[in-house]
Amino acid sequence: MFDAAYLKAKHEAGLAYDAYVRSGTPVQHDNWLRVYEKATLTEPQTKLVRSFTRRINVIVLSGIWCGDCVQQCPLIQRIVDANPTAIALRWLDRDVHADLQKQVRINAGDRVPVAIFAAEDFELVGVFGDRTLSRYRAIGQRMLGPSCPVPGAPVDADELAATLQDWLDEFERVHLLLRLSARLRQKHGD
Fold first, then answer.
1. CB neighbour burial string for 47-67, b if at least 16 within 10 angstroms, e if fewer
2. Is 164 exposed, middle or buried (0-12, 13-18, 19+ CB in 10 A)?
3. Which pLDDT score is estimated for 153?
4. At what angle do helices 26-38 and 67-81 cross, to 10 degrees?
């Protein structure tokens, strides 16, 4: 799918969260900020993320304009904030990086957000997106309105917490995959 040099170059081209969010309009920035301020990790979740020891390089393809991104990407950043030493995250606009977007199409569509997880040496570990199971369940229950939520629309607190847990589960899965990797265990002597 990707080679390590390609993923490293894309990671280096990405923006830090604050710069990415500021790249949008003031209204878009405020929408992302509202969800970020609403989302918090519990103490056990924070403890889990802080226990991560393997570096995880993450690229998130997103759209600052996208309702699903507004409602999920700040949650991803909250996870990163709990352990920025172990998780190196960069944000890419999917339209600017169409070459990468074409490689992670889901159900023949350009979906966002899509997280690309890589090891410390940028070997591909996994791809996850566009909506978590909890998001799909909530949207499936509503079955009203547009298929993509309106940016800035309120998010139910239980849905937010469940979606945050879904993203955290994927970060934990990737970390465990890296910790148990024979290649990396040999390299680190653990």
1. ebbeebebbbbbbbbbbbebb
2. buried
3. 65
4. 50
Tokens of 155: 């998010």
- The mean of the pLDDT values for the chain is 92
What pLDDT is attached to residue 146? 54
- Domains of the chain, start order: 4-188 (3.40.30.10)
Q: How far apart are CA 179 and CA 110, in angstroms?
A: 31
Answer whether 166's CB lies under 8 Å from 79's CB.
Answer: no
| Cα separation, 76 vs 131, whole angstroms | 12
Give tens-digit pLDDT for 20-78.
999 999 999 999 999 999 999 999 999 999 999 999 999 999 999 999 999 999 999 99
Are 87 and 116 in contact, with CB atoms under 8 Å apart?
A: no
pTM to 2 decimal places:
0.91
CB atoms within 10 A of CB 145: 10
Amino acid making up residue 150: V
Distances (CA, A) of 172 to 82, 127, 166, 168: 13, 14, 10, 6
Q: What is the pLDDT of residues 106-134, one digit of tens each?
A: 989 999 999 999 999 999 999 999 888 88
Distance CA 48, CA 163 (A): 17
Measured CA to CA, the distance from residue 59 to residue 127 in angstroms comes to 10
